[in-house]
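Appendix C. Worked example: Endonuclease, Uma2 family (Restriction endonuclease fold)
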Amino acid sequence: MNIVAEKKPRQRTGRISARNIPPALVYETWQGKPVYYRGYQDVLAGKKTIEEVISCSDLQGVLVYLLGLYIGNTINRKKYLISSNESGLHLAQNDNLGNDLVIFEKEKVGKLKGKYFDVPPKIVIEVDIKADVSDFEGQLDGYLIQKSQKLIDFGVEKVIWVITAAQKVYVIDRNDPTWYVVNWSENITIMGGCILNIKQLLDDEEIEY
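Step 2, the predicted output written as structure tokens:
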């Protein structure tokens, strides 16, 4: 008697198709290519919820609030507009970025339309990296550098990254070829008349971290 082995269906391997990833897990779109939230694979594996992945940490949330409060009380708000809460920035077709805190010149923005901003901010401030960087060469640094360059090319004057785990600040200035990183206890010029010291800002609020 011949015994025929039962054929088992071949299991597919490789990355999950982008069509099967919920749109809520897309953090940004770079020239039509989705950039997902860090930890999105844990959501797909059932280890985390979407809310856990897209929400910010306690220190990140407090810092974004304090930065907006401090800058708002320092700059001329009749001339400048501050936006936070992952403000959408539309660079071009299928090219959209999210930003923690942005400062616009009001005359360039005009009337708010209930859509993504489509004009370059004067200043962009980011607190930590929320994107999945596994596809970026250099990963964290690669993403930070490439996103900063996209913003500079769009017309942003200065990009500032606050990295809470390392307590460092990256300063990228369109008019200065030297991009540099300092301890967050150092003074940083945001714009004329607005000097920021992250450590001092937290200490003044008596916040432990």
